[in-house]
Amino acid sequence: MRAPRRHPYPHRARRARRQRRARRRVRGRPPPVRAAAHHRPGHRRRGHPARRAAPPGPGADRLVGEAARPAVPARPRRVRPAPRPRREPPGPPEGRRRTPTRRAGAHPPAGRCCCRRACAARRPGGAGVTGPVDTIVTVRGRASRCRVAGDGPLVVLLHGIGRTLADFAELHDRLARDHRVVSLDLAGHGGSAPLDEPHTLPALARAAADCLDALGVAGPAHLVGNSLGGAVAMRLAVDDPARAASLVLVDSAGFGREVTVALRLLALRPLGRLLLRPSRAVARRTERALFHDRRYVTETRLAEAMAAARRPHAARVMLELVDSLGTFRGVAGPWREELLDAVARLDLPILVVWGERDLILPAAHLDAARTRLPRARTHLFADTGHLPQVERAEEFHRLVTGFWAGHAADR
Predict the structure, then answer these.
(1) Are 361 and 258 in contact (CB under 8 A)?
(2) Low pLDDT (below 70) residues in the chain
(3) Global pTM?
(4) Among 45, 187, 196, 271, which is least packed by CB within 10 angstroms?
């Protein structure tokens, strides 16, 4: 005899039988008769033979000879109430205008900016107070991005290689309280288009000078440069001494041959192109090398680094700068010697600051700065990386403004 076939999912079969019995009770039909002895379990019943043989009529729902059962009344169906009409919110009182809802992506009203910086430049009656505004100026057919804010003595902020003006964002806001501050994206960096010529230190300095002229900022400026921006600031001061009121060199390039191996590897062309491919892992390692305190390695900074690396000209600009400034052994010597000799002859107040834990350009370069620029004032920030203006923002601001105020009093 063949073994009875079992349902592959017995719990589903039991649930289906319960549901069928419930439906029959609702319709007033009795539950089905249990299977006879000869019925094989698992087979679907087609009804009892006695029920199939019963003639049609009122008693067709029961077995032959079975007493009639009272019919169970059908359960009344629930009727959902009609939805209530939607009530519109009351309008504004007479004589008052309702502020229109801001569209998605639209800039909020002045004074309530979505960023943390107030857009005071667009505030009615805000004469004499200028908020930070990113501006794109066209210089010789090339777009350059800059950020301008504040009123007072002119300050120009210059970032490092492969970076953007965002490295000076906090210092920019602090200085703009009592200075006219201009942050520049160097040519081929950030929002500035690349040059038509090879990117070298003199070319970057000329492009920065052209951008300042296009902005209409006249008079000597306090030049503040970080890393490569420090070398650009020195080149600007040497090429046009009337443009510089002082120099603040922050972990500046140009004081020694030693540099991080990540930049030296870029001098090997095949490997350099591979290392400059946009990669979140590379961006994270780079940001960690810039800061001693890892809390400054934020998602916002990583996103900015990835956006800069994805620009189509980013790799070309980096490779041209590395070729012009150094080799696999480190920063080249000839341009450093010539530039430092020229800066030493300038009659300018100079402040050189460094981060003690700088992994890009070691703090030992500060000793070289004291030797090559004996009249310069120096300062070393303890437990600080390559960007002291970020990690020591308040202390850096006090140091720089005190330096400028002291020399202004001497005059």
Answers:
(1) yes
(2) 1-4, 26-132, 409-411
(3) 0.69
(4) 196
